[in-house]
Structures are given as C-alpha cells and as structure tokens.
Design a protein that fits this description.
The chain is mostly helical. It contains 42 helices and five strands. Among the domains are: 115 residues, 3-Layer(aba) Sandwich (Glutaredoxin), CATH 3.40.30.160; 109 residues, Serine Threonine Protein Phosphatase 5, Tetratricopeptide repeat (Alpha Horseshoe), CATH 1.25.40. The protein is 67% helix and 3% strand. α20 packs across α22 and α32 runs antiparallel to α33. The longest helix has 26 residues.
C-alpha cells in the first residue's frame, strides 16, 4: 500500500496499478488494499475496474461485518457506500462514529469526515472534523490542508495560515501547493501561480490538477495552443477524467468567463454524466449567464440526487422564493423583486437603470444586444445564495456577472444605510465594461472604473480621499498597479478592502486625466482581444515602472492636498480621549510612521497646533458629550472650514447640526445639514431633518430635493413620501404628488382614509376615473368622512350636501 501511494504521488501511475493489483492477488480480502487499488485504477482511466473494487468492498463488509469491525475497515466501507448513494448523515453518525469509538487514534477517520463535509459544502462540519483530528495529530499536513479548505469560503486569511502550517510540516505537500497556485490565479499573479505549479510538478510531472491549472493560465493569457497541450497532459493517463474539465471550468467561472466555464462543465458531464460537481457548477454557470430554465432544472436535479448537499438545498429553497417575486420589464431590463418592494420603488429602479444605460453605453460606445437581468433580494441570505451558493455575508451589496446583476434590497441590511442608486449605477457599469472586454478584465480595473463612474454621475457617490486613506498613502501602503487585484483577495481588514476599491478608482482617474478617456477605452478593447492587462496598460499609457512611479506621485499629491490647512500630526494616545479616538484605526495605522513615510511621528497633545485635525475632533467630541454646545461650535466650524468634504455619520456636520439644534439656531442648523446632505449620499438622517425644517420654511423645492435624496438610501419608509407628496402638491406637480400618495399607501399609513381621500382629490383634478375608487376606499375606512362624501357626490355629478 505504501509503495502504491508513493508511485501515485510521483506520477508513476502504471507502476502504481501494477503494485496494487499484484498485492490484491495475494490479499484480495483486504478492503483498505481494495480502496488503494481503486485509486490506482482510476489514475489509469480504468473506471470499470475501479467500480468493481467498490462493489467488492461493499459485498465483503456487508457479507461478513464482524470480520471488518476494525476502524480502518469501517472508514473504507463508509467511503465506498457513499459512492453507492448512502445517506451521508448515516455514514457519519454510524460508521465513522463507530470507527472513532474503536480507534480514536486513526487519522483516516478525521480525514474522511472532513472530506465528507467539504464535498457536501458543509464547511462547519468539515472544520469540526479537521480540528478534532489536529488535536490528536498536530503535525499532520493533510489535516492542516483540509482545515484550509474548510476555512476558504468564509475566512481566506485563516485558510492561508492553515496552508502555511501544512507546508511547514511538508514543504512538498502537493494539495497545499495546488491551493496556493489557485489562490495566485485568483489574485491574477500568474508568475507566482506558475512557481507553485512548478513545485508540484517537481514531485509529480503528470499531476492532473496542476496541468488543469496550467490550462487555465494559458486560457487567461489567450495562449490557445498551450491551453490545449496542458489539458491533454492533464488527461494523459485518464482521458475521461471529469475532474479536469470541472476544475478548468470552475476557475474560469471564478474569473467571470461563464460561457467558457459552462462548456467545460458540459464536457465533464460527457465524460461522466453522474459526476455531480460538474452538474452543480453548470447550474450555477447557467444561472449567472441568465440561462435560467436549464440552470434551475439542473439545480433541482442535483438537489434530488444529493439531498444532503448544502449548496444544492440552498438553491432549491431560493428557487421557491424567486417564484414569489414579480418581474418589471422594459426593452432594456428585467427587474425581479418581491411584490411589495416592486410596488414601492420598482419604478425608481427602472428609471435609475435607464439613466445609467443611456449615460454609460453612450460614453463607452456599447450597444447592448439583450436586456440585462437584475434581481433584488429583501433577504441578505437569499442574495448570498443566489450569488455565492451559500447564505454567508461577505459584505457585498451587489454583484454583476456580465448580463446578470444580483443585489441586496435597502431593507436587507437594516442598521447599515447605503445608497442603492449608487450601487446599481456601479453594478450596471460592470455590465458595460464586462461586455466590452468579453469578461476578460482584472478585478481591480473592473471595480476601479465602476467606482470612478459613480463619482462622475454624482459627486456625492463613490469614494474619496479621507484621513485614513491619506495616512495609508503617505505610509507607502499603495499596491503596485501591476498587482492591484491581490488587494481584493485577502485584505488585512475591511478598511484595506475599501482602500483597494479606492486605489483602483484613483488609478482609473489618473489614466483618464493623464492620457484621456479614449486611452482607457483602448485598454478595454485590447483586453477583449486577449491581451494581458499590463501589456494593454503599457501600450496606451507608459512603461509599467514609469506608470507606477507617476501614479504613486499622483496619489501622494492627492493625499497631501487633503485639507492642507489642517495639521495632521497624530497625538500620543496616552490620554483617554486620544486613545478612544485612535481605537478604531487598524494596528498598522496606530503604529508610528517610519522615517521614510514623510509623516511626523506622534507627539504629546500639549504641543499640538490649534489646527490639528485629531485634537480638534477630540475637543469637539468631548464638548458635545459634555453638552457644552456653545464652546463646541468653534472647533467644529474650524474643522468644516478647513475640511468641508468630511462625511460619515460621525462627521463634524452631524455634531455641528446637533449643536445648532440644541441652541435653537434653526437657520444655522438648516445650513449645516444642507452642506452635509450635498456631500454625503448616505446622510439619510440629515435629509429627514432637512425635510422637517424646509417644510416649516415652506421651501418646497428643497423638501422635494431632500425627499429624493432620502429615497436613494431608504425607499421603504413613509416619511419621504409624505414630504414629497406635500411638496409636489404645493408646487402644482400633480403627477409626482399622485405617485407619492400611491406609494405612501403601500407602507401602511396611520390614516389610510385621509391618504385615499387626498389621492382621490388629485386624481379627480386630472379627470382620472380611478378617483371614485379611492374615495370609496376612504369612506370604507371612515364612513363619516364628510369631505370624502362631498367629493363622491361631486364625482357622481350630484348636488352637494
């Protein structure tokens, strides 16, 4: 058995088969040897003979259970009956638990249990099994690798740490090296992926997965001959190995090349129609391509065939949920939403998407051939299942696959306000750029253009330089342009992920400013033809070294221009106030800057200038907390005078507005809130207060403006519609008032009778016969509503009361 394993590990597949079959001739009753022979036969493409070994295992153990009650035989029997369709829970709870009771010191028990969890996408179970094994075998690289696989979907950083642990125990651990190669492909660091694959093939020159990944790399580099050669090498010893095309398709899918990915999954299914991973992945690929009929059919088939698979179960449940959605359509879009949300703000979604299409398609010269599909989910878990297959929360608001967009509804993440209009603009920009490049573009450029175009559409949207980004730039935390996509893969913190988005947008802005929009469009055109991004950048901008140097200078200048009148020296965090101020920063940010960064080191608070940003924020915060509102005005006004673009819920605008309100300075409060709402696209609290103040001042245009700003953050609550209806009525905009009242009625108003009456009045003014229906609904709610009775008589053409 050891000889066979060694020969398989080094790619001597024919020799491994010979060793296994020779051993079986001497000991055909050994189920562990049968299982080892199965692996050797499969590696040589002898699938029928391998299946016979599974039948032998099941027949021998079932016929003589007392002879195979040892832990090792129970583990093998469990693996064999799983292939025959046994219930995974029963295998886990009966066979593997019995094996564990018989011999808890057998590592194969934990490896088999963990592998079962991974296969069924039950990553919590997998992690539990591998962690239990590691408590007994802390130096086992296979267990560390398995734990990395279990962590990978939810915590890539922990997964990489587990891989490092595996390689510390065995520097030639092939599975771990393959995982690192896969990670490098995702980060678009192709030379690093080649290096890891080289290490794998130094151990086994015919390792099928290594050749599959080489085929992926060749495809991404548009090297068709090399791709074909690599795939052929992967299939050399097992020409119908379904896992080869499955892996190639999986990686192409993760690189957004869904059509090519689906073709490989179809090929894998031709090799083996019963290979469920390929069927499940093909279902996902088709759903992301918008080919829903076949995609959902395949997903349901997978769920029927494997009821334990968590991902398949999630998709089946989601399909039932989507069946209750409604679809809003026009010639450009299919928007799928819950019925309630479609009634409330579906028309606004279509209008926003229409503007995005008109603007962005004209700007980038794209003619879309078919309507885009947008699905908006009121439950975050449903969005995650539709997008990733699992109900985790990786923090995304929306995702674009090319012609399909999935998005969270504004109601899906309560307590975390965000601008859904900016998000949909961002995602539709992905539709444009992915079409232009045929889905061949690095993540950083795709995200960078989308964030950049947010800011072009509305100055309050997108990202901008802030104190944290300023410090990161000046401390030298910019990623090289040639390696920007890596910042999205395993960021050190949520802040670093957001910084990756910001830096990508800043690179796009730099290219447009320095070289022009036409050069950016030419880069996209080259990507569509298969050119690598760094080659395309050099063709249309400058040599990479100069491009990176010039961009770094551009970013540094942008950082230094942030509120230049402020002193950015950081205080020593010895005082409680300063410590609290700095507690939200990352460890990297809290560390003293190095001499090369150009930033001054931390200094005692007493020596800080009167324009020091950190001191002013601390002083203002403390004064507001102590309700010393008059004294708080000076530091807050100075902050806003020197840094007027500072936004966020904890910005000086919020504090200064609170101060003015406490002091009864209504006009000053209104002016402060107006400046805040103009700059911050998520300042719903400011917009709500402004609507109250503007309505009191009868500034109806301002009321309408801030109602619309509020609706861009939360269209599912009544107050903005109430203010919008009143403002529209006062300004004579009857259609807007009617629509606002209609929507308000969808949100369970406290006085529906009065809502129906006002709506009936407006409809009657326009001659709409629906006025009669609404006045009757008003009287149904309040039969003695005298004004409604009068209106009904007027509608019926009868004398008044």
């Amino acid at each position: 058995m050891l000889l066979c394993k060694a020969l398989l590990a080094t790619g001597q597949y024919a020799e491994a088969r010979e060793a296994a079959t020779n051993a079986l001739a001497q000991d055909r009753w050994n189920v562990q040897l049968c299982w080892q022979a199965r692996e050797a036969l499969l590696s040589n493409g002898q699938t029928n003979a391998a299946a016979e070994q599974v039948e032998n295992i099941v027949r021998m153990v079932s016929g003589h259970p007392r002879d195979y009650a040892d832990a090792a035989s129970l583990v093998v029997f469990g693996q064999a009956v799983l292939l025959k369709g046994a219930d995974p829970k029963r295998v886990l709870n009966t066979l593997l638990d019995a094996a564990k009771r018989a011999d808890p010191g057998l590592r194969e028990i934990y490896l088999a249990g963990g592998a079962l969890g991974l296969e069924k996408h039950d990553f919590a179970l997998a992690a539990k099994q591998f962690e239990e094994g590691l408590r007994r075998f802390p130096d086992d690289p296979d267990l560390h690798y398995g734990l990395a696989r279990a962590y990978a979907p939810s915590d890539p950083a922990l997964a990489l740490s587990a891989i490092e642990s595996a390689l510390q125990r065995n520097s030639n651990h092939v599975a771990s090296l393959l995982m690192l190669a896969e990670h490098s492909i995702d980060a678009e660091d192709y030379p690093e992926a080649e290096r890891f694959l080289g290490r794998v093939q130094a151990v086994n020159p015919w390792q099928p997965e290594a050749w599959a990944y080489r085929a992926v790399l060749a495809h991404l580099r548009n090297e068709q001959k090399a791709e074909e050669t690599a795939r052929n090498n992967a299939l050399k010893f097992w020409p119908a190995n379904p896992r080869v095309d499955y892996l190639i398709g999986l990686k192409l899918c993760q690189n957004y090349q869904f059509a090519e990915a689906a073709a490989h999954q179809r090929q894998a299914r031709q090799f083996d129609p019963d290979y469920l991973p390929a069927k499940a992945q093909l279902a996902q690929d088709l759903l992301r391509l918008g080919e829903e009929t076949e995609g959902w059919q395949l997903a349901e088939e997978v769920q029927r065939q494997d009821g334990y698979d968590v991902e398949a179960y999630n998709l089946a449940t989601l399909h039932d949920t989507l069946g209750k959605f409604v679809t809003l359509t026009n010639r450009d879009f299919l928007v799928r939403m819950s019925r309630h949300e479609a009634d409330v703000y579906g028309a606004r979604v279509l209008e926003l998407l229409g503007r995005a299409k008109t603007n962005l398609c004209a700007k980038y010269g794209l003619q879309l051939e078919q309507p885009a599909l947008i699905e908006i989910f009121p439950e975050q878990k449903d969005f995650a299942v539709r997008t990733f297959g699992m109900p985790a929360d990786p923090g995304y608001l929306g995702v674009c696959f090319g012609n399909v967009i999935t998005a969270n509804s504004p109601g899906a993440r309560l307590g975390h306000p965000w601008n859904w209009q900016a998000m949909l603009w961002h995602e539709f920009c992905h539709v444009v750029t992915l079409h232009l490049t045929r889905n061949r573009m690095p993540r950083w450029l795709s995200e960078g253009i989308s964030v950049y175009e947010e800011g072009q559409a509305n100055p309050a949207w997108g990202q901008r330089m802030n104190p944290r980004y300023r410090e990161m730039v000046l401390e030298g935390e910019l990623s090289p342009v040639s390696k920007l996509s890596g910042g999205f893969l395993t960021p050190r913190s949520a802040l670093h992920l957001q910084f990756a988005y910001y830096q990508s947008a800043l690179v796009v802005e730099f290219i447009v400013q320095r070289f022009g929009l036409d050069h950016l469009k030419a880069i996209l055109s080259d990507l569509a033809e298969g050119l690598q991004v760094n080659q395309a950048l050099e063709r249309h901008t400058a040599p990479m070294q100069k491009l990176e140097e010039d961009f770094a200078a551009f970013a540094r200048q942008r950082a230094e221009q942030l509120a230049p009148g402020l002193d950015w020296t950081k205080p020593e965090p010895a005082q409680p106030g300063a410590a609290a101020l700095l507690s939200g920063l990352s460890d990297r940010q809290k560390a003293r800057p190095s001499a090369r960064s150009g930033l001054p080191t931390n200094v005692p608070r007493d020596s800080l200038s009167r324009t020091n940003f950190y001191a002013l924020v601390e002083q203002a915060t403390q004064l507001v907390r102590e309700k010393k509102f008059t004294e708080a005005k000076a530091p807050l006004e100075k902050l806003l005078d020197l840094y007027p673009d500072q936004t966020g819920s904890d910005s000086p605008y919020a504090m200064l507005a609170e101060v003015h309100q406490a002091l009864g300075e209504t006009n000053a409060e209104r002016q402060t809130l107006a400046r805040w709402a103009e700059r911050d696209d998520e300042a719903a609290k400011a917009c709500l207060r402004l609507m109250e103040l503007d309505a009191a001042a009868q500034d109806w245009k301002a009321v309408e403006l801030n109602a619309l700003r509020y609706l861009a953050v939360d269209p599912l609550v009544a107050p903005p519609y109430r203010f919008l209806a009143e403002a529209a009525e006062r300004t004579g905009d009857i259609p807007t008032a009617i629509q606002a009242y209609r929507t308000w009625l969808q949100l369970d108003p406290l006085d529906p009778a009065d809502m129906h009456f006002h709506l009936a009045e407006l409809l009657h003014r326009t001659g709409d016969p629906e006025a009669r229906l609404h006045v009757l609904q008003a009287l149904e709610e309040a039969p003695r509503h005298r004004a409604a009775l009068r209106l009904l008589l007027e509608i019926e053409g009868k004398p008044g009361m």
